[in-house]
DNA sequence: GCTATCCTCAACCATATGGTTGAGGATTCT
DNA sequence: AGAATCCTCAACCATATGGTTGAGGATAGC
């Protein structure tokens, strides 16, 4: 999980995940549109691999990358836990404002 | 969003978010259990602030930090989009294995 | 067999990051 | 007023990170 957030911290890596979600791609295909050398892209892919997000199978001389989205689950769970906190803030704010100017007003406005 | 993933890449910062989810805390309170100088903690908090996850209000000489979980929403949404991809993989795998060795066998083994 | 293609690896470089210390601003306490 | 407390800022340092190039391994194509 530690490594998942770390891997996703870089926009380039999130882009790779996005592209791989569509279909498996070779390293070259991934690197092509990425204003970066092949070796540079390869490094990013390796970071994703270490995070368990990408598996790479060798097909002849081509290295095919596929997404393994499963490790995203733990990060997602972590975030979702705190989602509980942000609506509460809104609720608290609403309660605060509602208290000042009749809560019924609010219900009626729906 | 870019900055949210970046801010959460560091375990120390995720810990801070966790603690602040319980209650607002001063910089000193946050730093206390954190094997790190006050200035060091302050830096981490500043990163979280830049990501919009923490707001800091000055109360006399004490700087109180409160969590603002709202920016987590975008990161959470990003992850949840890809959650669609990982169950499909499991389904595909199950179908693959199931086809090879009778799905009923698998159910019975539960 | 020779050459081109796809990719990784190692070395290298510049910059970012995570930490420290020391100085000092602003409050609070006595 | 003077001292202690809480915190930020700036300078500094070591290491991590993100990129490059060049060399070379393995495969594919001629």
Commentary on this structure:
Chain A has a 3-stranded antiparallel β-sheet with strand order 1-3-2. In chain A, a hairpin with a 2-residue loop joins strand 2 and strand 3. Chain A is 65% helix and 13% strand. The first copy, chain A, has 110 residues and is an alpha+beta fold. The radius of gyration of chain A is 22 Å and the shape is elongated. At the A-B interface, helix 1, helix 2, helix 5 and helix 6 of A face helix 1, helix 2, helix 5 and helix 6 of B. The structure holds a DNA duplex (30 and 30 nucleotides).
Sheet-strand content of chain A, in percent, reads 5-15%
Query: What's the end-to-end separation of chain A, in Å?
Result: 41 Å
The helicity of chain A comes to 55-70%
Low-confidence stretches of chain A: 99-110
Biggest protein-protein interface? A-B, 25 and 25 residues
pLDDT average of chain A, as an integer? 83
Oligomer: homodimer
**Strand adjacency order, main sheet of chain A:** 1-3-2
Question: What does the main sheet of chain A amount to?
Answer: 3 strands, antiparallel
**Overall morphology of chain A:** elongated
How many helix segments of chain A? 7
Could you say which structural class the secondary elements and strand pairing of chain A correspond to?
Answer: alpha+beta
Compressed to H and E, one letter per element, the order of chain A equals HHEHHEEHHH
């Amino acid at each position: 999980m530690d490594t998942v957030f770390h891997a996703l911290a870089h926009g380039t890596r999130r882009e790779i995940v996005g592209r791989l979600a569509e279909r498996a791609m070779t390293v070259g295909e991934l690197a092509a549109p990425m204003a970066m050398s092949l070796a540079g892209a390869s490094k990013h892919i390796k970071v994703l691999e270490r995070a368990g997000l990408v598996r790479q199978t060798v097909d002849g001389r081509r290295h095919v990358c596929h997404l393994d989205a499963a490790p995203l689950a733990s990060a997602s769970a972590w975030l979702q836990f705190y989602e509980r906190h942000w609506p509460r803030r809104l609720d608290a704010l609403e309660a605060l404002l509602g208290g000042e100017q009749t809560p019924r007003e609010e219900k009626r406005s729906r």
